[in-house]
Amino acid sequence: MGSSELERERDYVAGLYRRLHELQRETEEQLDAVRAQSVGGGHQARSERDSFARLYEDRILQLREVGERLAFGRLSVDGDDGGGDQLIHRYIGRIGLRDQDRQPILLDWRVPQASAFYQATAKTPMGARARRHLISQGKKLIRIEDEIFDPDLLDESSVQLQGEGALLTALSAQRTGRMSDIVATIQAEQDRIIRSELRGILVVQGGPGTGKTAVALHRAAYLLYSHRERLRSSGVLIVGPSRSFLRYIEAVLPSLGESGVVLASVGQLFPGVEATAEDSPAVAGTKGRLRMAPLLARAVASRQRVPEAPQPIEVNGETVMLEPELVASAIAKARETGRPYNEARLVFVKTALDALTRRLAAQLRDQGNTVDDSDLPMLREDLRTASDARIALNTAWLPLTPQKLLQDLYARPHWLAELTPDWSAEDRHRLQRERSAPFTISDIPLLDEAAELLGETVVQDVAAKRAAKQQRKRDLENAEQAIANMGVGGMVDARSLAEGFAEFADAGTTAERAASDRTWAYGHIVVDEAQELSPMQWRLLLRRGPSRSFTIVGDIAQAAAASAAETWEHAIAPLIGRGAEGERWRREELTVNYRTPTQIAAAAESMAIAHGLPVTRSVSVRESEWPIEVVPDALAATRLALEVDGTVAVIAAADRLAELHRSLGAELGDRVGLGAEGLASDVTVLSAQEAKGLEFDSVVIVDAAAIVAESERGAAALYVAMTRPTQRLVLAEGGLPAAPEATAR
Ligand SMILES: Nc1ncnc2c1ncn2[C@@H]1O[C@H](COP(=O)(O)OP(=O)(O)OP(=O)(O)O)[C@@H](O)[C@H]1O
């Protein structure tokens, strides 16, 4: 390949950057023009103008975000003449660009024509004749790499890696503590998953380092692009295991030009409560089980109480008796509505007050007073505000928040025992705790379940939501009208513009509104490290995604949580319900390990298999320069790890972390950080749980046997720890523990 070819490509890429800057300028001018427009004083007109401005601002931001590596590929396909002599070159990049004549000069990687760039092989060229990778450093094109799809050159035996040189360049880059996008080097098996249809439940199983997280994030970007109309207003939720994990992945989607996504850890899924602490595995296991749902339902139902004796109600010097029968019949009537607890309570109060008013009126008449129908509202109001009535009715049916319900349940052992006659004392004991203790990650789905049963505490919330929905409908009509008036049909769509109105009106962007609304229904949900989720967490997610459009990625063998399932069928059962399961979900596998070198991956797999874990085998694409070493102490091991440029993780059992942080810090100074907060340091001391989903150039495992012994699924935790390094693994304070005699998990 001549260097003139590289020059030619550099010219082409330079042309693309020029066009990008031109478009930036044009959009900035359009923005200025919109801002300068005089639109009179009407609120509607102003908000329309502002949302046009917002659209242009978004586009400018998107054009600027692209920054580097604008174009990374070229696909050569046969020209229209069919003779095959004339080749058409399609350039593939991070965004699509057109020239001044509106001819495409760069295809967005997500358009259907670009899929051949990722999926074509010599065996199935998908109409392509050749593929070229454009490898850049920053904005500078430094190398090109060609693949010609010639069937004679096929080698059936090896793993088919697409653009091997470009891929290995990407993989050998030093880790930074932040995940980066893989858009230039997506592999065929990954691309098929990324482009899989939006509908239904897709489960992606793969061993460590097979790109599950990367694929899940690129799939979110792909879906947002391909189903923009639908997903822009409903939003996409990405759920990860921890805040440290979210920090690790949070830059990927913005680098792909997508920002309208809600990222949440499992501790952040109930608006208003942010849980970071986790219970012990046994307690988390109890709280994660499905039988918590009927328990909460029983707890809610038992909160209505009929008084044993009549209650005197003083009102304006008159005493009227509130009979148990009256309360019982008002409760029955309210329950009949089938509404959630707090909403049904309003029916109860209304029914009870009406009956009490009638009783008071009759009593007054009996005493010779004249009471006609027009007096009833006033009597009712007197009763409503009488403190006796308030106390009596509240005692019968108290308004409740999910927080209060759960705190009561945990802090009142007798009540809990009444509600759980078939539970063991041990299980019950696991739920007990102080009323003031902060909520844990395992409490989040229970709070959500309780909120579902209780409904809104304030009626206005229901009314406000209804009003907001109607407002959005009006906004959409106004947006259509505005587009027609301004003559910009085809450039902007009404839905995006209407979203803009809402953003300015009150509640922020779709993502912000979605994140703060428990009843929000997302258009799509991506769940990472999904093997860890408990049945109760799945129930919560189903409420957030009632359309059952899910991408679920994980590795069953890495499951460390006590409440995690042992197969995907079991794991997602709460999501599928009792339908024809086979038809409702599909499963894909990833089989190439892009992270862990062969030798380390092989040792990790053997260890896991010896402990009976259901490992999905994969093939590593890297080799390690270093053998796995075993050294006596953690400091010596960390020094060895630091010989490799890049990041180091020191992984140990949870009760060793503080002490290791201190002792290593004493020798290595502030290069050593602790836990999620310490991830920016050269050396981070953390537990296997905290390391989940992350990667480091080198890893030191301190006392591997203690990690295995630490929990019921300790072998899975060690498997996670061993598969974090991209280059070097050092074991300190003992090698790998021997496999147990019986290999039961
Ligand atoms: N096609 C690709 N091109 C370049 N890098 C890739 C590709 N696929 C995956 N990688 C890289 O491999 C590493 C592992 O990917 P990722 O973290 O997504 O794996 P995972 O399957 O989620 O792993 P784990 O189960 O261990 O959490 C990341 O650094 C990712 O960027």
From TrEMBL:
Membrane-traversing stretches: none
UvrD-like helicase ATP-binding domain residues: 185-597
InterPro entries registered for this protein in UniProt: (+)RNA_virus_helicase_core_dom, DNA_helicase_UvrD/REP, P-loop_NTPase, UvrD-like_ATP-bd
Pfam families: Viral_helicase1
Species per Swiss-Prot/TrEMBL record: Leifsonella bigeumensis
Keyword entries, A-Z: ATP-binding, Coiled coil, Helicase, Hydrolase, Nucleotide-binding
SUPFAM superfamilies, alphabetized: P-loop containing nucleoside triphosphate hydrolases
Gene3D superfamilies: P-loop containing nucleotide triphosphate hydrolases (3.40.50.300)
Coiled coil segments of this chain: 6-37
Protein name as it appears in the record: AAA family ATPase
UniProt binding sites for ATP: 206-213
